[in-house]
Structures are given as structure tokens and as C-alpha cells.
Amino acid sequence: MDDPHYLSGLQLAGRRVVMVGGGTVAQRRLPRLVRAGARVELVSPHTSPSVSGMADAGEIVWHQRRYAEGDLADAWYALACTDDPEVNAAVCAEAERSRVFCVRADEGESGSAVTPASGRHGGLLFGVLSGGEPLRSAAVRDSVLDALHAGTVADGRAPRREEAELPGVALVGGGPGDPDLITVRGRRLLSRADVVVVDRLAPRELLDELAPEVEIVDAAKIPYGRAASQDVINRTLIEKAKAGKFVVRLKGGDPYVFGRGFEEVLACAEAGVPVTMVPGITSAFAVPAVADVPVTHRGVAHEVVVVSGHVAPGDDRSLVDWSLLARMRGTIVLMMGVERLPQFAKALLEGGRPAETPVAVVEDGTMRTQRVLRSTLAKVADDAAAAGVRPPAVIVIGPVAGLAHESE
User: Fold this and answer.
1) Domain 285-407 in this protein, CATH class
2) Which NCBIfam families is this protein grouped with (predicted)?
């Protein structure tokens, strides 16, 4: 049977909208109504904490009572979202008499309106209806959004360029490795790049989604081996941008967490090249998380320190007070520390960290090749060597590193 619905966009800004029910359905529907500028009045004796927070913030008006006949007076739109079918039916009946379109959450076909699975992308708002199959609507919506983000479906803008949105350079954090963990904005800007300057640890699979004409510049910084000079990278960004290209500098993790991102921003600024900064999910916290290592946990760790392992303890270039770190009781997240792990462990032990302090080493975090080594501070250097641990790996030192093992 053909879908009986007529898809339309409602202009609700400044207009009264009544929602009956303050539970999880309300929590899902309210933000978009508020964003649309509707004057939302909520009728419910109770709400979820998030919904009451919206009322406290003045985003909605909450009438803390049960629904009563007449609540829909002067409303333009209504939503019956309680867990009581009789109340929802009464709301829809009043809406019908008042000629107010009404969504009924528990029985969509019984209302006079349905809420589509909606998506937003670059100024577009679209909805999908499937005749009473909400999961199907959501699946199609998600597929369209993914295609728009990847640039495989045109979004109707001017081809490949919109000057107000695309500055000379976009500094994009690609996340810890899994291509699904790049931000939505980062993926969108990447899909519109003319040139992509990419690090070895950036999500490689994303490059395959680029159009054939996109120029890819390899700025691989292989640990302790061949490396592209930072000056060369800076110069490449500036030259490509000044040639009229939109350049995406795609980096692993977050560009401002040991990623030299701000060096590149300063170089572009000095050359008069505008930069858009798009933060990424930092590997320092995300990689331990996917390995069941929380960097904080109530009653276990009240502090987290992220430390670069680029230089060893005692090196004249080191800015780290290892004796102070050794006296901490919280979490140390050590980045780029595989090669010098014996030196770091020794410095912490000599500074007073207990030998039995749990340590987790997460290699290739979020990737198909991820593996986790669990050890102690006294043994981790030998264990990592025996296991053949190689960069990239995130090393977590502290009680939190032993929590998952204790729960097994």
C-alpha cells in the first residue's frame, strides 16, 4: 500500500506547541522543537532529569500536572508522549476536535501526524517516512547522512567550493585510527578538499573515499625513522592554500595533543593563510577506553596526566618532572613511549611508584589489529619486549589499568 502520509515542513518559530508526557520520548523530541524556535509547553507530573533541566534553563515551560481537557487551546502542534494509552488517546481526540495536528508516540497510526526520521547536513534538513516502519526510516536516514558526509551524494552546493565555509587550511583531527571515529565536521571538510596533507597515523581508509582529482601529500612521520620535516609540511600547507586550493591537514588523534597542530596554525597565520580548527578524539583517552581502561574511576583516580615519551627522563630537552609523577596516585597516560619504556618505568619506580602498579599497553588502539598487554610497573618493560609491542601504542599507568582484570 502507498504511504498515506504527506511530508511537509512546519514553521513553528514563535508558535505554541504542546507536549504531553515528560519521559524519554520527550527527551528525544524536545531539542529539535526548541531548535526550531517553537514555544513549547510541557504537561506532565514528572519528567526525566534532562527534560527538567531544559525547563530550568527556560527553554520550555513545564506545567507540573496531569493532562486536562483544554490544554491544547491555541496550539499549532501537539505531541502525545506519555506511557498511558488512555491519556494519549484523549490528547489526540482533543487535537482532532481542535484541528491541531498531533503525533501519538505509542500508536503512530492513531495520530494525525507522524515524526519522520530526520537528518541535518550543511544547511539541509531532510526527513524519511516509511509507512509505520520507524527502524527502516532511521536506517535510510543514516545511510543518506553517511553518503552526504562522505561526499558520495551531492548536497546541491556549488561544486567543491563555498568560500564562506572553506578557508585556506582546515586542521582536522582524524581520531585514534578507526575511520568511523572522525568527527562529522572533519569528514565533511575532508570530502570537499582539493589537497589532503596526511600523517601516517591518520585514518587511512578515509583516503579511499576522496575524489580522484584530490591531491594527497604524504607527511608520514614514522616513529624513529624517515620523517617529513615540519618546515616542509608548513610550507606545503601555505603554498597549496595560496595557490587557491582548499587544504585539509589530516592528523591522527587530536592535533593539539602532541600533534604539533598549533605549530602549523602559527605558520599559516604568519603567512596570512586562514585556518579552521577541527578537534579530534584524542588517542590518549579513546584508546584506553576501547580497551576497557577508564583513565578515571570514582574512588580510584582523581587525576590524569598525559605525558609525551618523545624524550627520556634526564634528557636536557625533557620538560617533565618524573619525580613528581612518581609521587602521584592517579593515572599517567604515556604517549610515544614504547622505545623508552624501560627508562620511564625505572624513573617512576625510583621515584616511589609501587612496583605492583598496574600498567596497560594498548597497541593499534581502535584498529582491527588492536592488542592489549596487561602488566605491572616492575615487569612491563620486559613483558612489552617479549610480546614485540611496537608503536603506535598508548601506555596507561595507575590503578585504573587493573580494573578490567579485577572484574574478570
Assistant:
1) alpha beta
2) cobA_cysG_Cterm, cysG_Nterm, PRK06136.1
pLDDT tens, residue by residue, 369-407? 899 999 999 999 999 999 999 999 999 999 999 998 665
Of the residues 71, 178, 194, 199, which is catalytic?
199
Sign (positive/negative) of CA torsion 330, 335, 341, 347? Answer: negative
Pairing state of beta strands 275-278 and 169-173? Answer: parallel
Residue with cell 539541509: 124
Q: At what angle do helices 49-56 and 24-35 cross, to 10 degrees?
A: 30
The enclosing H or E element of 170 equals strand 169-173
Question: All 3 cell numbers of residue 366?
Answer: 581502535
Rounded CA gap, 335 and 320, in Å?
13
Domain 16-115 part of CATH 3.40.50.740: no
Q: Where are the domains of the chain?
A: 16-115, 119-150, 169-281, 285-407
Lookup: cell for 352: 616511589
What pTM, to 2 d.p., does this model score?
0.74
Residue 105 to residue 114: CA distance in whole angstroms: 8
Which range, of 215-229, 232-246, 282-296, 352-366, averages the lowest pLDDT?
215-229
φ/ψ of 148, rounded to 5, equals -65, -45
Tell me how far the alpha carbon of residue 348 is from its chain's centroid: 33
CB atoms within 10 A of CB 196: 24
CATH superfamily of the 169-281 domain = Tetrapyrrole methylase, N-terminal domain (3.40.1010.10)
* CA distance linking residue 53 with residue 64, whole number of Å: 14
Dihedral over alpha carbons 401, 403, 404, 408 (to 10 degrees): 140
Contact 402, 356 (CB under 8 A): no
> Is 199 labeled as catalytic in the residue annotation?
yes
* Residue tagged active-site, from 221, 240, 245, 251: 221
Distance in angstroms (rounded) separating the CA atoms of residues 383 and 7: 61
Residue 161 has which C-alpha cell?
Answer: 567550493
Q: CB atoms < 10 A from the CB of 97, how many? A: 10
Beta pairing class for 304-308 and 247-251: unpaired
221 is catalytic: yes
Mean pLDDT across the stretch 10-15?
Answer: 95
SS3 content of the chain, % helix, strand, coil (to 5): 35, 20, 45
Query: Could you give phi then psi for residue 334, rounded to 5 degrees?
Result: -105, 120
